[in-house]
UniProtKB/TrEMBL annotation:
Coiled-coil boundaries: none
Key words of the record: Cytoplasm, Exocytosis, Transport
Known role: Component of the exocyst complex involved in the docking of exocytic vesicles with fusion sites on the plasma membrane during regulated or polarized secretion. Involved in polarized cell growth and organ morphogenesis. During cytokinesis, involved in cell plate initiation, cell plate maturation and formation of new primary cell wall.
InterPro entries named in the record: EXOC6/Sec15, EXOC6/Sec15_C, EXOC6/Sec15_C_dom1, EXOC6_Sec15_N, EXOC6PINT-1/Sec15/Tip20_C_dom2
A Pfam cross-reference name: EXOC6_Sec15_N
Start and end residues of each Exocyst complex component EXOC6/Sec15 N-terminal domain: 60-229
Domain spans labelled Exocyst complex subunit EXOC6/Sec15 C-terminal: 421-767
Main localization, broad class: cytoplasm
Localization in the cell: Cytoplasm, Cytosol
Family, similarity comment: Belongs to the SEC15 family.
GO cellular component: cytosol; exocyst; membrane
Protein name as it appears in the record: Exocyst complex component
Organism, as annotated: Punica granatum
């Protein structure tokens, strides 16, 4: 092997030595090296053809092949002996193989002759085994088909009984366990065709039931809203009844009826509790029951079908469309007639949605319900704004406000925000009260126009309770005997009823509107009703329809009773507003009907003055230059006193003492002015002391009349009445004084003559004449001794003229 290797390494150089020139040798050397290294000969071939010398390349290749043949020959010579030995071994092996083949043939013949019976048995066994396997496969297939058919039968049964969920579960079981394993191709194709059809049928059927439910739930929602709002109204009514009982207890307690015990009936409390339970969270299963089974069924079926999101969207869009249609207000029906249905429909809608949100397991989210509610609130506010702007009747506006507030109470229980609705109601508060004032203005005008201003006759106790006690107009807790003649006319209870109705309507509008302390608002409009509407109507009737003294006296008596009624009005407003009585007393203002009261008293005083003037004309019959003073007063004063006494005996039956005192004081002041006016006027040219003495008697008679009213007034009030005659009294005292010049003393004038006008004093003093030297002296005798009184009077006249 070593010699052969040495020979191979020398082959290439030997062949190179036999080559041509050096270039061919170099090229042949490179080609030989490439072949020995298993390199690509492409570059050599391309180069040969590119240079046009392919023959040279072929020559080099042949030369390389010849060199390799010689090398192979050398290798064969080196291994020839080993090859001979191998051939000998192979021939020996062939001989052994022939012997083995003969032995195997004999063994095979022996084995085959012995195993024929066993092979036949094995074939029978294999055939039987294959039959057994086939039978087992058939039995398994039949068993699977039986189970499949049972599922199909069960699915059909569920479908026929509308138990779609169980039918779908059967479909899922068939698809998951049997479809891919069914040996029957026909049955498999049938199932692959029928299962989608059944699912589509179930979806259509459930969708139809859901559509029917959508139609039905609108009617149910309207009824549901009406029932829920009705429950809220009943609960509010129970609260009002409790408040009335509480106010009655407080009123009786205020009247110091300590021996009375007040307790609320337990049945009422239980009723309230039951009402609260019915109106609470379990109400849907009771009075407020409604069926959501079709909805839940449809939702569950769509979940099972894998269509949950699509059904959610379908449900939300349909309910949103229903809500939008609920917002439509019919132009053919007045809103006053349709507002309850309108708001009840919306209330029922959101009661249902609240229930669905809490129990459906995600069919509709809280955010979606809130968005629907915001849309509904915006639309309801818009509708209310539009309808309120058109209404011109306060009672209509109040009806709608009450129902909207009940809607707010109902939906607030379910967590909905209703502040925007309450804000709309508050926004129209002024308009409502303006309409209410307008209605009351008409009613008061009608009541005043229908009154004859005669004392009201009450024949039965219920009339007394209805017209007197209900407004706390009584002056005594003792019920009078019947028939009873009231000191007021029908105007008083009629106006009281109108004002009380105004208060109750105002409180009703302000109540449950989100504002807890609303007494100031009610009081403001009550002040306007009394000071503007009622006072103005009374002023108008006084100035246009009162002509006689009896009517004027009745109006003045009515004003005194209305003054007591006004106290009741404010207390009643405070009670209805939930304000403690002490707070109402603290916020009281002056009598709001002051103008009408003053006008009534002025009217009565004016008519009495006119009547008195008819008697005062008799003052012209006074003998101003009498020789003797009259002992029993002049004729005019006797007539006046008779009239005044008659007047007082009549007026004290209906007029309060203070009103009668003010009227009499005004009349007496007028009489005093007429007496002084007679002395001051041009009719009386002169008078003497006897005439003044007669006037002194007249004034004394009038003062005596004032003193005689002590049974009606206090001594102090009777003394104040006498001050109405101060001007006449001071003028008479001055003319009868021994020192009339004391009038010039400021201290004496302020104390004794403070009501006298110095111009009247001058004029009247100049008219004084007397022929008797015992009195003021005479002006006709010159040179005789002058009377000191006359001298003092002349001094007074002179000084006053100088001062003037």
């Amino acid at each position: 092997m070593n010699s052969a290797a040495k020979i191979r390494r020398k082959v290439a150089p030997a062949s190179l030595a036999d080559g041509g020139d050096s270039a061919d040798k170099q090229e042949q050397l490179l080609l030989s090296s490439a072949i020995c290294n298993n390199e690509d000969l492409g570059p050599f071939i391309r180069k040969a053809f590119a240079t046009g010398k392919p023959d040279s390349l072929l020559h080099h290749l042949r030369h390389f092949a010849r060199s390799k043949e010689s090398e192979i020959e050398e290798v064969c010579k080196a291994h020839y002996q080993d090859f001979i030995l191998a051939v000998d071994d192979l021939r020996s092996l062939l001989s052994d193989v022939d012997s083995l083949k003969s032995s195997l043939h004999r063994s095979n013949s022996t084995v085959q002759s012995v195993a024929v019976t066993l092979l036949n048995s094995l074939d029978s066994f294999l055939e039987a085994r294959n039959t057994f396997v086939n039978i087992n496969l058939a039995l398994h297939s039949v068993h699977s088909c039986i189970k499949l058919l049972e599922l199909c039968s069960r699915a059909n049964l569920h479908l026929s009984s509308n138990n779609f969920y169980m039918a779908l579960k059967c479909m899922d079981a068939i698809e998951g366990e049997y479809v891919d394993k069914i040996p029957s191709v026909t049955l498999k194709k049938m199932l692959e065709r029928k299962i989608p059809e059944i699912r589509s049928y179930i979806e259509r059927k459930v969708s139809k039931e859901f559509g029917d439910w959508l139609v039905e739930i609108r009617v149910v929602s309207r009824n549901l809203g009406q029932v829920a709002i009705g429950q809220a109204s009943a609960a509010r009514q129970r609260e009002e009844e409790l408040r009335i009982k509480q106010r009655q207890a407080e009123e009786q307690s205020r009247l110091s009826l300590r021996d009375c015990v007040y307790a609320l009936q337990e049945e009422d409390d239980e009723d309230v509790l039951c009402g609260a339970i019915e109106a609470g969270g379990n109400s849907e299963n009771g009075v407020l029951g409604f069926d959501l089974t079709p909805l839940y069924k449809a939702y569950h079926i769509h979940q099972t079908l894998g269509l949950e999101d699509r059904f959610k969207q379908y449900y939300f869009e349909n309910r949103k469309l229903q809500l939008t249609s609920d917002f439509q207000v019919s132009s053919m029906t007045p809103f006053l007639e349709s507002h309850q249905t309108f708001f009840a429909q919306i209330a029922g809608f959101f009661i249902v949605e609240d229930r669905i949100m809490r129990t459906s397991g995600g069919l509709i989210s809280k955010l979606e319900v809130e968005n629907l509610w915001e849309t509904a609130v915006s639309k309801m506010c818009s509708v209310l704004e539009d309808q309120f702007s058109r209404m011109q009747t306060a009672s209509h506006l109040l009806l709608i406000k009450d129902y909207v507030s009940l809607l707010g109470v109902t939906l607030r229980r379910y967590g909905y925000l209703v502040d925007a609705l309450l804000d709309v109601l508050s926004k129209h508060r002024d308009k409502y009260h303006e309409l209410l004032l307008s209605d009351c203005r008409k009613q008061i005008a009608e009541a005043l126009a229908a009154d004859k201003f005669e004392q009201m006759l009450m024949k039965k106790e219920y009339e007394y309770s209805m017209n007197v006690l209900s407004f706390q107009l009584q002056t005594s807790d003792i019920v009078p005997a019947f028939p009873y003649v009231a000191p007021f006319s029908s105007t008083v209870p009629d106006c009281c009823r109108i004002v009380r109705s105004f208060i109750e309507d105002s409180v009703s509008f302000m109540s449950y509107g989100g504002q807890l302390d609303f007494y100031d608002v009610v009081k403001k409009y009550l002040d306007r009703l009394l000071s503007e509407v009622l006072d103005g109507a009374l002023l108008k009737i006084i100035s246009s329809s009162i002509h006689g003294v009896s009517q004027a006296m009745q109006v003045a008596a009515n004003m005194a009773v209305l003054e007591r009624a006004c106290d009741f009005f404010f207390r009643h407003a405070g009670q209805l507003s939930g304000l403690p009585p002490r707070m109402v007393e603290r916020s009281r203002r002056q009598f709001p009907l002051t103008k009408a009261r003053d006008a009534a008293e002025d009217m009565l005083s004016g008519l009495l003055k006119t009547k008195v003037d008819g008697f005062m004309i008799l003052i012209e019959n006074v003998n101003w230059m009498a020789d003797e003073p009259p002992q029993s007063g002049n004729e005019y004063v006797n007539e006046v006193i008779i009239y005044l006494e008659t007047l007082v005996s009549t007026a004290q039956q209906i007029l309060p003492a203070q009103v009668l005192k003010r009227v009499l004081q005004d009349v007496l002041s007028h009489i005093s002015e007429k007496i002084v006016g007679a002395l001051y006027g041009d009719t009386v040219k002169r008078f003497n002391v006897n005439a003044i003495t007669g006037l002194d008697v007249d004034v004394r008679l009038l003062e005596s009349f004032a003193d005689n009213q002590g049974s009606l007034f206090s001594d102090e009030e009777a003394s104040q009445m006498k001050t109405a005659l101060a001007e006449a009294r001071q003028m008479v005292n001055l003319l009868l004084s021994n020192h009339p010049e004391n009038f010039l003393n400021p201290v004496i004038r302020e104390r004794s003559y403070n009501t006298l006008d110095y111009r009247k004093v001058v004029t009247i003093s100049e008219k004084l004449r007397d022929t008797s030297d015992r009195l003021f002296s005479t002006f006709g005798t010159r040179g005789s001794r002058q009377n000191p009184k006359k001298k003092s009077l002349d001094t007074l006249i002179k000084r006053l003229r100088e001062a003037n």
